Amino acid sequence: MKFFVDSADVDAIREIAGNGLIDGVTTNPSFVACSGRPIKELIAEICSVVDGPVSAEVAATSTEEMVREGRILGSVAPNVAVKVPLTWEGLKACNVLTTEGFMVNVTLCFSANQALMAAKAGATFVSPFVGRLDDLNIDGLDLIAEIRAIFDNYDALETEILCASVRTPNHVKQVALIGADIVTLPPEVLPTLVSHPLTDKGLAAFLADWEKGGQTIEE
Ligand code: G3P
User: Fold this and answer.
1) Residue-wise over 28-55: b if at least 16 C-beta within 10 A, else e?
2) What distance in Å separates the CA atoms of residue 6 and residue 54, rounded to the nearest whole number?
3) CA-to-CA distance for 168 and 157, rounded, in angstroms?
């Protein structure tokens, strides 16, 4: 499973990218607005830090304008994935942009039929939102399982399932078990996947014993 970072915080992305642990980045209009930076400059910098796909979202709602904005964003760097919303207009824009050779991430997916339509429109990625369904007492993980099952029924559907709105270590484990292709995570969630109290306790005990032994490791 690939790990993307869900953020427009370049410092946080740079730090995580330095650990070799991430395969891409997703941004959204809220993150970009919050950064206070011009979108093209910001996306160009993120693309210089990360080799994998970097999603940059259009702000238009008509197909024509989404295509225009998508072409601009997609030309910022070869690894930009143009992000469009899962609307009828967005799917038409997806089709045009993928035909022109751009990667496209269709976002704000909340149903299996929406995901199927994104795949039919040629999306490179479809982004179902797990946490926002959970917020409504609808199990977001069920949606990931449905989309996985549908896509696995048809070899011709090559769209990757990019799980978004992933907020907890349990979400990560469950979507990995289901077989999602990608999970995108807020930078602060990544370290929580690593921490375990028994690891900390075990390490402390090993180091205490080592110190008592008085050894060092040298050439
Ligand atoms: O980038 C979109 C998505 O991942 C946002 O997640 O937690 O605001 O639902 P959340």
Assistant:
1) beebbeebeeebeebbebbbebbebbbb
2) 10
3) 29
- What DSSP element (H or E) covers 133? helix 130-134
pLDDT digits (tens, 9 = 90+) for 96-122: 999 999 999 999 999 999 999 999 999
Nearest to 119 by CA among 176, 160, 66, 180: 160
CATH 3.20.20.70 fits 2-213, yes or no: yes
Torsion of the alpha carbons at 182, 42, 115 and 119, rounded to the nearest 10:
-90
Whole-angstrom CA distances from 183 to 100, 116, 126, 174, 189 are 26, 19, 11, 11, 11
pTM of the model: 0.94
| Cα dihedral 33, 121, 164, 85 sign | positive
HSE at residue 122, side-chain half, CA atoms within 13 A, is 16
How close is the Cα of 207 to the center of ligand 1, in Å? 40
User: Which residues have any ligand 1 atom within 6 Å of their CB?
Assistant: 6, 26, 28, 129, 131-132, 164-165, 167, 184
Q: Please identify every residue annotated as catalytic.
A: 83
